[in-house]
Specification:
The protein is 41% helix and 9% strand. It has a three-stranded antiparallel beta sheet, with helices on one face. Strands 4-5 form a two-stranded antiparallel ribbon. It is mainly α and 177 residues long.
């Protein structure tokens, strides 16, 4: 989620929690006005101490245009290929845009994988769910081809937070997050 979505979601949640009484069928017609007023108030108020620091950290997070031959850029492009993204990674003058969500050891595991190495078929529900959750986390708001009762992926399980990948021949289970 981007910072604006997070702020709006928090404002809506606070407004709904403060106005639970408006969801009574007798008062429902007043709900939109009251909720709108509270949401606008939450969005236009000055930031509190902790919020300012969190916002600064989010703005300072690593996302940038990287040379296409850099390890992070290669990993991001391979990640998008593995995830069956509908569009290519943003590229300009030999640079690839890598957002902050797609940073870290788990994403860098894709730098060592290439589409030429192929993929494996996955039909296990737990594995498919793990991959979908992984893609949702590192590629938020990126359209991907829908995959039905089976999918393909480079490994049986998504990379761990430390970047460890799981071999298709190994019978080990993915550790709990």
């Amino acid at each position: 989620m981007n910072p604006l979505s997070t702020i709006i979601a928090a404002a809506v949640a606070d407004a709904v929690a403060a106005n639970v009484r408006l969801f009574d069928p007798k008062k429902i017609e007043r709900a939109p006005d009251a909720l709108t007023r509270d949401i606008v108030k939450a969005l236009t108020r000055s930031t509190k101490e902790g919020e300012a620091e969190a916002q600064t950290e989010a703005e300072d997070a690593p996302f940038e245009w990287l040379p296409a031959d850099s390890r992070r850029a290669k990993a991001y492009v391979n990640l998008r290929i593995a995830a069956h993204c509908l569009s290519r990674a943003a590229e300009k003058d030999g640079l690839i845009y890598v957002p902050r969500e797609a940073d870290g050891p788990a994403m860098l595991a894709f730098a060592d994988w290439t589409p030429a190495q192929g993929v494996i078929g996955i039909s296990n529900v737990a594995q498919m769910t793990a991959w979908r959750d992984f893609y949702d986390r590192v590629l938020p708001n990126v359209a991907r081809r829908p995959q039905g009762n089976s999918m393909t992926a480079p490994w049986p399980w998504p990379p761990s937070k430390e970047g460890k990948t799981y071999d298709a021949d190994a019978q080990e289970e993915m550790p709990a997050p």
